[in-house]
């Protein structure tokens, strides 16, 4: 899946060319592999969870063209307020620098309920080899709002170029998208 970024916006809510997937409980995993060597300064790309607010794990390209893994959320500090056009991505954690055309693997693990109680949390992970996963950032609490996503939480594959940067078209490739429903500790279903 190739995403072209030709317009600017400050956050995932207003990003064009995104792909969404409904989440299911009690546990759910979203994974992707992205090729980022065509990103330009200011670009953010990766996986996001959206509900009444958003959190994301992805790759950012800084002003010098260096690419880093990051975890972030909407800048209103995960308060449950809906994002608006002026809201920007708040970086909570920055991971490793991406060298050359190395692929980056991203994963979000959702837990909606556990032991018959509501949990509504997401954790973020990345890998540079597709098998050794590193947690990045803090556990993210989901809000529930059918007014923003129609069905509660959703996974978004997206690409954002903040307004403060010139609309310099760039693209990236999502090499795979894997959606898994966790049935139990020993059973998973790839959707």
Describe the structure.
2% of the residues lie in helices and 53% in strands. It is mostly beta strands. A hairpin with a 2-residue loop joins β8 and β9.
Structural class: mainly beta
Low-confidence stretches: none
In this structure, how is the largest beta sheet organized?
Answer: 8 strands, antiparallel
Radius of gyration, whole Å? 16 Å
What fraction of the residues are assigned to beta strands by DSSP? over 45%
State the gist of this model:
The protein is mainly β. It is 2% helix and 53% strand.
Secondary structure: elements and pairs:
Blueprint: E1 2-5, E2 19-22, E3 27-35, E4 44-50, E5 54-61, E6 67-74, E7 89-98, E8 104-114, E9 117-127, E10 134-135, E11 140-141, H1 146-149, E12 154-160, E13 170-184, E14 187-190
Antiparallel strand pairs: 1-13, 2-12, 3-8, 3-13, 4-5, 4-12, 5-6, 6-7, 8-9, 9-10, 9-11, 13-14
